[in-house]
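ok so i was messing around last nite and threw this chain in just to see what happens. nothing serious, just curious
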Amino acid sequence: MFKLFSKKDKNAWQIEMLKNVFTVMPTQYSIYLQQINEGLIKNILSGLGDIPGYKTISYHPDVVHKYEIRNEEISVIEGVKVFDLKSSRFIDLEIYIMSGMVSGYVLHTNTKKTEIDSTKIDVSNVKKVKIGNKDTEALQNILGNIPNEISSMLDIQNTFEIETSKGDLYTIKDLENGNYIAIDKNSVIYGLIHNPYEVEELFNNKETFFDALKSGVFNFTDYINNKTS
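result:
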């Protein structure tokens, strides 16, 4: 049965849509339904990343550790269609997978508003495709050869370029809820805070940043807790 959600339940209809989509997919996609049912999704945010219409999913940290596969290649689930009541037609839905988890989605529509009947779903042509990430290549050129001890602390494979008041930056660590550590082409390190919006220079070169990570002088958890508490 189609459910209607109020504006205050802005995440509810999106989560319901994703659940219903994964429910009717072949069994190899059931892990993503399991993630959602166990409460992986904390929030769904707009305006992040460089893909038009992309919705970013933030996670509940107590669920992430069960499903995260660090540095797994980014992939996209294609060939899914959901019914839009506004336009009275099926529209394409793409679901992005990063680090083994549902990370976001895009509804491909020409209208500003949609009203999805998430019980009308076509997955007859569904497929999962690994996608090349030119942003990863650009970031790796900036970082150069770094020790495994440092790279294991970062989210290099999941990077994306983002426009900020400090110029174009590449994310290197996902701090959840739309917050990131990022780097520019000159190797300056920044903290990106989603709410309230802030772009803060943390280190003026990557070497100092790496040393601070290695020694424990800089800690991701302490940083985000201090910024958001």
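not much to say yet. The radius of gyration is 19 Å.
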